[in-house]
Write a structure and sequence with these properties.
alpha/beta, five-stranded mixed beta sheet, globular
Length: 396
Amino acid sequence: MINSNQKRFVGTSVYGVRMPIISEGADIVNIITDTVLKATQATYQPLTLNNRDIVAVTESFLARAQGNYVTLDDIARDVSKKFPTGDVAVAFPILSRNRFSKILEGISRGVKGKVYVCLSYPTDEVGNAIMDEEELFNSDINPLNDVLTKKKFREKFGVFHHPITGTDHIQMYEETAPNIEVILLNNPVDILKYTKQVIVAGIHIRNRHKKILEKNGANVMTLQDICNTPAQGRGWSEYGVLGSNFSDEDRLKLFPREATNFCKKLQENLFAKTGKHLEVMVYGDGGFKCPKTKIWEFADPVVSPGYTDGLKGMPNEIKIKVVADSNKANPEEAIQAAIAEKNNGYTDYALGTTPRQITDLLGSLCDLTSGSGDKGTPVIVIKGYFDNYTTEAPTE
């Protein structure tokens, strides 16, 4: 029995760990390990570590250490190998300045003919609006069937600025290169009226669009096929230029490569230095949606490109409020019994728990904690995530 002074009141807790600024080639396995150790020895807010705590590393920290960059000319070379002549359509990219505009510039350098940028409407796949949805609803345009040129779009809806950035994405994309023309459509088969050569630029729906286009006779590649294999003098990623980000005027930082191998190495190093078995993951964008703008903040191909084995699967949890409401006479006892049953592999009280991958939940938590600004905490430590309501002493 644990007395009142030993009773545990704090459950899952999350800490951002400030790291030194790193550059290409940095040994971040040791840098992260040493910094986490220093955090445990700090006078102010010392960090404790227990078995099954989680160390999460943002994807950009790993990619920068890997020197995982490509130039716009690198992108152009890969595109010109696939499409050496003729016009090319770029299908359903997201509306983004730092995520796609530079990729488009690289693509345009590699295409000998015209580049048709085919935008979905009224929003892209992650919820960025390209027009006022109310105006579309009140118009005679059918978004399932109607193809809009830039001229027709302007006549019907005028100029629309992104509600957050103020960007007119149609204008911005057309001004990227002189061989670019923007078209708005939603049926991928309509793209083939313009060209049979297509780069599917979507993120989460790319495989479905690729399958539809190939079935209808198109020659297709996706953004994942660009810079996705090792080559001399440039970076690469299994995800190609999916998940890439603006670095400077002529370079993009790619999503990190071989992230699972990195996680295993960091886990081994942390165990050697701390004696604790910690789980490790790499995280990118969290999978959450802004309730005001309706934008789904998920421009990376996955939330977590790499993680250790202990983070596989979905949480095994009961819904406490369901148990409590179903056992009003003695809810505390019922909850403890339900958790015990769950730990033995059986429960009737999972109703209401949303089935999500552990890494998707953790990645969103980490992304919200570290942010993308100046907090300087690209490493997150999560404590007590695998505990439940009955857990008292942490696992040493």
